[in-house]
Design brief:
Oligomer: single chain
Helix content: over 70%
Largest sheet: none
């Protein structure tokens, strides 16, 4: 199956997942609201007050997950920035072998010609930039692997916190309605009873099917790899190149000029070039390691800060929504008599409309699978 077909299926799968969530949310809301229609204002107030401890538990779950994300952030930012610092400081150990395949062809007569020296300097700078870019990319793969593993752990925690959260919301529903909540034990991982915020945090809204490890949540508004790329590749690699190339090209030139017109062996000139380049590189690596490790620290920190902000916002929105639902019903009861039959009919119609829309999406998804199979 080609990429465009896979993407079409993945995108419609995401729509189906969101539609199922909306449908489940509507069913739950209707199931909570209908039993409360028969309660008078005083009884309704009493029941709403009785679930305040449960709402505090929901806030507590948010705080615990938030704390875990922040602890993970601090550990990863420190560990990965230290890994980068060590990596940069060790570049000098393998530079002579590593740089061989990057250095430009060296014609000593060309270099001794002032007219062609600028072209050689440009070629040398490009070679060094490519060397730094490749070395940075190699290290970034290691960093991504570590961050990936950390997000996998957080996704597992999201599942656990989500399960606890659902238990508390079920308790709220039972207290409000006086009826036991039926738990669906036949659902798959994608269709479980986790709240929407937990599904997002677990990666189940990803455009990439099953890509929990990759955590490709761009489609749901989160892509940590892009954050890392923006910070490190654009700022970090550019900073290293700027910090080093402009400083060491001059000394390299002087070293080569010092070989003299009579020194015609290009091999010796190449060795001299690499030797001088290494000497200048090693001289500046401590400063580069110090400055750029802070860039890496900030990049990793922002990956987890972004995740934490989004998770906290989604949990807060869910809690506020649940409270508002009860407050609005109470206000309706206090300001006017609710016609039970018309309200019951309205809620049932709403639920049926949502179910009908879900069925259309389910059918479209099944047809798309059949078309591409």
């Amino acid at each position: 199956m080609d990429k465009s077909k896979e993407r079409a299926i993945a995108e419609l799968r995401q729509v189906r997942t969101l539609a199922r969530q909306a449908c489940n949310h509507t069913r739950e809301a209707v199931a909570r609201r209908i039993p409360l229609l028969d309660q008078d204002v005083n009884e309704l107030k009493k029941r709403i007050d009785s679930v305040e401890p449960e709402f505090n538990k929901l806030t507590g779950i948010r705080n615990e997950f938030q704390k875990e994300i922040i602890n993970t952030r601090d550990t990863q930012a420190r560990t990965i920035s230290e890994s980068f610092r060590s990596y940069v400081l060790n570049l000098g150990n393998t530079f002579e072998n590593d740089f061989l395949r990057y250095q430009p062809e060296l014609n000593l007569f060309d270099f001794l010609s002032s007219g062609k020296r600028e072209a050689f300097n440009t070629a040398l700078q490009k070679a060094f930039e490519q060397y730094i870019t490749d070395k940075s990319a190699a290290w970034t793969l290691t960093a991504e692997k570590d961050i990936n593993a950390a997000f996998k752990e957080l996704s597992r925690s999201a599942a656990q916190y989500g399960a606890s959260y659902s238990q508390v919301t079920d308790q709220i529903t039972e207290k409000l309605t006086g009826q036991d909540v039926k738990v669906n034990t036949t659902t798959t991982a994608e269709e479980d009873n986790s709240p929407a915020w937990a599904k997002w945090a677990m990666g189940l809204l990803s455009l990439s099917k099953g890509n929990l490890a990759g955590f490709a949540l761009a489609g749901a508004g989160f892509d940590w790899k892009n954050i890392l790329l923006n910070y490190f590749t654009v700022i970090g690699v550019g900073g290293i190149i700027t910090a080093v190339t402009g400083i060491f090209l001059g000394p390299i030139g002087f070293a080569l000029l010092g070989l003299g017109v009579g020194f015609l062996q290009a091999d010796q000139a190449r060795k001299e070039l690499v030797k001088t380049a290494k000497k200048e590189l090693v001289k500046h690596l401590p400063q580069v390691a110090h400055e750029q490790s802070q860039v890496v620290y900030n990049a990793v920190k922002e990956c987890f800060d972004s995740y934490e902000r989004e998770v906290s916002k989604r949990i807060n929105d869910d809690i506020v929504s649940r409270k508002s639902e009860l407050d609005n019903l109470l206000k309706q009861k206090e300001t006017r008599e609710i016609n039970r039959e018309s309200e019951f009919k309205r809620l049932k119609t709403l639920q049926e409309d949502v179910i009908a829309q879900l069925q259309k999406i389910e059918a479209a998804y099944s047809n798309l699978l059949a078309y591409y199979s």
